[in-house]
Amino acid sequence: MSLKKDKQKVLGEVFDDERVRSFLTVESHDEMDVDYIALERAYRGMKSENFSTFVKFFVEEGRNINAKNPQGKTLLQVISDHRLGRDYIKTLEAAGAKF
Questions:
Q1: Digits of tens for pLDDT over the chain (99 positions)?
Q2: What is the pTM of this model?
Q3: What is the DSSP string of 14-81?
């Protein structure tokens, strides 16, 4: 008996504007700032070019680019020492994020 895959492996997710905008909708289950949750989720789930588009939409909605996590840190502060964070940091700073 041979086993075969029923699905093709997805190598890259397509991030059209609709998909990028879907990251704006988040819920907080522990009273954490939803703006921080949205930013972190986008950072963790997108390539830098998609994250740049996300931040543009985020700011257009009047969301808080300097939202803080429960430890009192902004996403910019959290990722400032991430090895691959440079492009994300540039995007955040261009949108007004502060240390």
A1: 444 444 344 446 778 999 999 999 999 878 899 999 999 999 999 999 999 999 999 999 999 999 999 999 999 999 999 999 999 999 999 999 998
A2: 0.84
A3: ---HHHHHHTT----SSS--HHHHHHHHHHHHS-HHHHHHHHHHHHHTT--TT-B-TTS-BHHHHHTT
